[in-house]
Each structure stands twice: as C-alpha cells, then as structure tokens.
Amino acid sequence: MSDERPSDVPVSDGHATAGWIRALGLFFVVAIPLAAQPSVLVAIPFLVLAVVLGVRRPATFLGVGVALVLALTRAPLDGMGYVECAWALVLGGWFAALTLRRPELRFTTRALGAVTGAGATAALIVAGRKGAWGVLDWAVSDRMSKQVGRALEAVQAARGGQALPANLATWLDQSVHVQAVVFPALLGLASIAALGVAWWVYVRLDRGDDRGLGQLSQFRFNDHLVWVFIGGLVLLVVRWGGVLGRVGSNGVVFMGALYALRGAAVVLFLSGGLSFLGLVLLVFGLLFVAPVLLAGAMIIGLGDTWLDIRGRVTATTTKG
Question: Which of 214, 235, 260 lies at the terminal end of a domain, its last residue?
Fold first, then answer.
C-alpha cells in the first residue's frame, strides 16, 4: 500500500470559482445529519483557527464577526446545543493543533486526525459519566424527530393542510431511526466537511489564497484505514448486537462514504474532469440509482487502496 503525499495546500485547478464550488459542496455534506447545526459546526472551528493561527488581514476580522454571530445565534439553548458547541470547539482545537504541529500534512490527514482526537476525547468524557451515552442518544433522536416534524408541518401547510401520504411519514420515521443509529459516523463525516469549509474560508480571508482545498480528483487518505472498514464489516457479518454491532455499522458507514468519495476521485482523475453533461447524468443517477453508484464508487475506492490506480497511470504517462 502506498502512503499519501503530504501537502499543506494541494494543487489547484486554476479556476477562481473552483474553491467556492468545493466549499459549497462540503457545506451541503455538513447539513446531512439531521441533529447537527451546519453553521455551528463551521463557525466554531473557524473561530478556533483565527485565535490559534492568528489574524493577518482585515477581512478575517469580518469573518470572525460573522462566525461569532452564527455561533451565538444558531446554537439551540438546550442540552444538545451545548454538546454540539463543545464538540465543535474540541474538533477545531484538534485541527488547529495538528496544523501548528504538522503543517506539511495535507488537509485530509489533519481533518481525519482531528475527528479521531475529538472522538476519543468525547468517548472519555461519556465513559466517565454513568448513563451519559443513553441521555445523548435520546437527545440526538429527539432533535431529529423535531426537525422532521417541522419539515412535515411545513410541507403540509404548503399543501393547504392536506394530510401527507402515510408511506412518506413511515419512510421519514425509518430514516430518523437509521440516522440515530449511525449518527456518530454521520457526525464524523459532517465534521470533516465542516473543517474543510472553515479551513478554506480562513485561508481565503487571511491569506488571500483560493487553494485551501485541493481538487477532488486528488482526494486520498492513509491506506491503512482500510482495516477500520474491514473491522466494521466483520462486526456486521457476525451479527453482534448491542455496542459492538453499532460500532461496526458506524465504521462501515464512515469509511464506506470516504471510499466512495475516493472512488469518485479516481473516476474524475481517469476521465479528466466532469463535464456539464456528466454532471447532469450524475445528478439523475443519484436521484434514481444512488445505491448502485455509491456501491460502485466504494468498490473503486477500495481497489485504489491496493492498486494505487492514479499513481500507476501517472507513472505510465511519465515513462511514455
């Protein structure tokens, strides 16, 4: 297995709007977990970066002001809101510390390290308080149910008070249950995306550089993380229930999503980019055959762990 090439600021594709598109795409990922507030997950790590790494330009002060407003006004004043703010603060602290300690590492490595460190910190805190996990689990499910309830009320109001189809309500209830089970994995993925947005905004404002995020076609991570996916898969296959089963499902969801993204990166690298027609086809594919596309991308990403497809293609091109 080959290791990843260190890079603090990955190579940009040269388009001025590329950074904005990447940051916007990552922000949509931050919004996936129903129990998380995207603005809080982005604003607090940005504030931590500004405090730890410093402020060099006036534009950054404006960004700090906006982030403060978002952090203070968007976080719900309830137990889950305080937990969310604490998580974002610890996450930002780990990422800033890794950036100071190992600035030569690529963003993906630092973000994964920050999520791992924040997860370990949270696990120690929860383990030290009896019944804390049960309370947190209930709070997550309750936040999700309320979010879905508000959405259903809005849709029903838009339909003039007409009752919604029963199968839609059932499907949403099932979605809430599934998200509650794999919420740690979804939060981890959203946290990586949030760090990407916060880092890009900080680099853009404080350094005037649009290359805080690299091209998707160059996305990769440490190959040894495949054992996290394999371990989670084993726990699912042996059908262990309780804590171990949940650990397995979260490991598979977390690493599966990363490998699907890595597979997409390989496809983009081989195809030379995504045309407008390709983008349209991708959107339709995700709407109608998303499981097939994601499974295919994940298999390609897993294969890249051992085959290093992009490295081989580059080497062959260089020799030619």
Answer: 214
